[in-house]
Design brief:
By secondary structure, this protein is an alpha/beta fold. The chain has helices at about 10-15, 20-25, 25-35, 55-60, 65-70, 75-95, 125-135, 150-160, 195-215, 240-255, 270-285, 305-320, and strands spanning about 5-10, 45-50, 100, 140-145, 165-170, 185-190, 215-220, 260-265. It binds zinc ion.
């Protein structure tokens, strides 16, 4: 049987009217996908993201917040960012695509029901989830957030939802979330950790938890502000992004027929965006990696940082009862 394609969602307004820190990266990243031949393969389909509708917005946000976004100047970019996520989720659920990558012009994970901060206006993950719940009866979602900033808005909107499981990595800020329950796990990880340690942490938590939860879809909130050259708190090289894609694809293959949707979150460095996004999209599509996309050296860490990271993961695995071999 022919493998289904990977869907890439984009809208020109993301680059023109998106939040300034985030907007400058998206057009170069899309151009690079085109120039490197990725969009010309039959395994990848590019589609223009629609605007998310008012009814769906009201299922996630308060009317006051929607009015606030309308006055912010980022309304159009926020609507196509939400629409990008919603369409990605729907296409993967109904089987038009094997998996999907959703570009955004405004990020989503700091958008709560009635407020938002940090380049976010509408919660893209929550819009995807509410749409599939109400239109298609999908009930179990696993959201993995590896952006180095906390997914506080996602927790606010979806935290009470019995069918949503949230694995939230964050660089160890003072204001880090600090929860380990049967549905919410915060991972305050050392910001100076190496690629190997970070990717291993994702593997040791996301894989066994996905096997336990058995979600119907996995969402990955992917911020390349986690790259050492970008503005966020982690210390990753380009190599970490396809490596994490491999892990989450494996989890999705094992538990939900490969249904994985990647949502673009933070990050502003154009050179990082181009290669991190290309590495992820090519993995999703089963295409070989380009040498330029893994060109930087793997990051390293001190023995102390390595030990701190291992301690965090072992403590969380122990609290979660994840003692199964990986
Ligand atoms: Zn971030």
């Amino acid at each position: 049987m022919k493998k289904k394609p990977t869907l890439v969602l984009y809208h020109p307004l993301m680059a023109v009217e998106g939040y300034p820190v985030l907007a400058g990266r998206v057009q170069p990243a899309l151009d690079y996908l085109r120039d490197s031949g990725t969009l010309e393969t039959t395994q990848v389909i590019l589609e223009e993201a629609p605007r998310v509708g008012e009814d769906l917005l009201l299922q996630v946000h308060t009317p006051d917040h929607i009015q606030h976004v309308r006055r912010s100047g980022y309304d159009s970019a926020s609507l196509v960012s939400g629409g990008s996520a919603v369409r990605a989720g729907e296409a993967v659920w109904i089987g038009e695509a094997a998996n999907a990558f959703a570009f955004t012009g405004c990020a989503g994970h700091h958008a709560s029901r009635g407020s938002s901060w940090g380049f976010c206006y509408y919660n893209n993950s929550a819009l995807l989830v509410r749409n599939l719940q109400h239109m298609h009866g999908v009930n179990r979602f696993f959201i993995v957030d590896t952006d180095p900033h906390p997914g506080d808005g996602t927790r606010d909107v979806l935290g009470d939802d019995e069918g949503v499981y949230h694995l939230n990595f964050e660089a160890s800020f003072r204001e880090s979330l600090d929860t380990v329950t049967h549905r919410h796990v915060d991972v305050p990880f050392p910001s100076s950790s190496s690629d190997d340690s970070f990717v291993e942490a994702v593997r040791r938590l996301a894989l066994p938890w996905a096997r336990r939860i058995r979600p119907e879809m996995i969402l990955w909130n992917m911020g390349h502000d986690a790259h050492a050259l970008d503005y966020g708190g982690f210390n990753l090289s380009l190599r970490a992004f396809p490596a994490m894609t491999d892990i989450l694809m494996q989890a999705a293959e094992e538990v939900c027929e490969g249904r994985l949707v990647v949502l673009l979150s933070g990050g502003s460095e154009v050179s990082v965006a181009k290669h991190a996004i290309s590495g992820i999209v090519r993995k999703l599509a089963g295409l070989p990696q380009l040498s330029e996309d893994v060109q930087d050296e793997p990051t390293t860490e001190s023995a102390e940082t390595k030990r701190m990271g291992e301690d965090v993961i072992e403590k969380i695995r122990s609290k979660m009862g994840l003692d199964d071999p990986i």
